[in-house]
Amino acid sequence: MVACWEVSFNLFPGEVLGIVGESGSGKSTILRCLNLDEPPTTGEAFHSEVEKGKTNLFTLSSQRKRLIQSSLLGIVYQSPHLGLNLDFSAGANVAERLLIQNNTPEYRRIRKRTSSLLNKVQMPVKRIDEL
Predict the structure, then answer these.
(1) How far is it, in rounded angstroms, from Cα 51 to Cα 11?
(2) Total number of domains in the chain
């Protein structure tokens, strides 16, 4: 069975990709491949911040893919339990990604940035420590 065929697009800085379609049309397969969770049968994906966009992301080691997943890629799932750790507070879920990106984590700076991001998506900052 072929889940996706001849899928092609370009994203530029600041752009967001939304994928919609009928049930069984391959949306989840595309997202799993693009998020480097599942290897495609064939194809290529490049990111301008990975070796200046010259290396196919699908050919990288598992460790390198994980680093890219945590620092450059992001998926917002329809079901929150797929993308969030429900044992962590709202702030901790956001801060986890920020901590991965920073070599020298500073609690105050991470918390301030987390608050800013929660505010940006119109989530009350007072809920930062709530599960």
Answers:
(1) 17
(2) 2
